[in-house]
Design goal:
Blueprint lengths: L1 H25 L8 E4 L4 E10 L5 E7 L1 H8 L5 E4 L6 H5 L5 H10 L2 H10 L7 E11 L8 E2 L5 E7 L1 E7 L23 E6 L3 E4 L4 E6 L4 E10 L6
C-alpha cells in the first residue's frame, strides 16, 4: 500500500513540474533584448583534462555547465552562444565536408545524430526526449519572408561560412510574414540584424520572427528542435 501512495506522490510531482514549465513558457516577456554568451563563460571548473595544441603547448579541457546554459535560456530572449560549436566533436568532424556528404552521413549512420544530441542535451527543455536536427545551406535564392518560430526550443548553429539573421519580436503582426523583407529592406518593420559566424549558435524563442540570408559566403548550418513532453501542451 505504501508503494501506491509513493507512486501517486511522484505522479503529482511530475504533473506539477509540467504545469510550472508550461506556465513559464506561456508567460509573455515585457522587454526584448539580444543576449550574448561567450563559450568560456559556460565552462564547468576545474578542467577535466589537458590536450596539446598545434605548438605542443598543454591546454586545459573543460565540460560545459548545464546550469549556466539553462540560466541563460531561462530569460527566453534570443541568445547568441559565441564559439561553442568549436568544442563540439561532431561539428569538428564535418567542418570541411559538403552538405551532401553531411546529409548522407546522417542518413547512413545514426552516430552523427547521437553525438549531436550529447551536446544539444545541455540546452534541452524539461521532460525532453531528444532533438530533431536538420543540416542545410543558404544561397542567394533565400526566401525573403519572415518565418514565425512555433517551437519552444529552437537552436540554429553555423557549421561553416556565415549568414545574416534578421529577428523581429513577437509583438509584431503575423502580417509581416506576407512581406518579402529581403526584396524591400526599407519596409517599416521593427527588427534586429545579426551576423552569425562559423562556430556560433543562436537560440530563437517561440513567437519570434526570423529570416536567414547568405552573407555573400557559402554557409552550412543546422536547425535543431527539442522534443519534449512540454510541447504536447503548448
Amino acid at each position: 500500500m505504501i508503494y501506491y501512495y509513493i507512486a501517486i506522490i511522484l505522479v503529482m510531482i511530475i504533473i506539477f513540474g509540467i504545469y510550472c514549465q508550461i506556465e513559464y513558457l506561456k508567460k509573455p516577456m515585457k522587454e526584448y533584448e539580444i543576449l550574448q554568451a561567450e563559450y568560456y563563460t559556460l565552462y564547468k571548473y576545474p578542467a577535466i583534462g589537458f590536450y596539446l595544441d598545434e605548438d605542443d603547448k598543454e591546454m586545459p579541457m573543460y565540460d560545459y555547465d548545464i546550469n549556466k546554459i539553462q540560466s541563460v535560456l531561462f530569460n527566453k530572449q534570443p541568445t547568441i552562444f559565441h564559439g561553442v560549436l568549436f568544442d563540439w566533436v561532431p561539428i569538428a568532424e564535418i567542418f570541411d565536408t559538403s552538405l551532401e556528404e553531411i546529409q548522407d552521413i546522417q542518413l547512413a549512420n545514426k552516430a552523427l545524430t547521437i553525438d549531436m544530441n550529447k551536446y544539444l542535451n545541455d540546452y534541452s527543455l524539461s521532460f525532453s526526449y531528444g532533438w530533431n536536427t536538420k543540416f542545410m545551406d543558404l544561397d542567394a535564392d533565400t526566401d525573403g519572408h519572415f518565418n514565425k518560430n512555433l517551437e519552444n526550443r529552437l537552436l540554429i548553429g553555423i557549421v561553416s561560412g556565415e549568414c545574416i539573421l534578421y529577428l523581429s519580436p513577437p509583438n509584431n503582426s503575423d502580417k509581416i510574414c506576407e512581406m518579402d523583407f529581403i526584396a524591400d529592406k526599407t519596409a517599416d518593420i521593427e527588427h534586429i540584424q545579426i551576423i552569425l559566424r562559423e562556430g556560433n549558435m543562436i537560440y530563437i524563442p517561440r513567437g519570434w520572427y526570423y529570416i536567414m540570408e547568405s552573407n555573400n559566403v557559402y554557409c552550412i548550418l543546422f536547425k535543431s528542435v527539442n522534443k519534449s513532453i512540454i510541447n504536447w501542451f503548448c
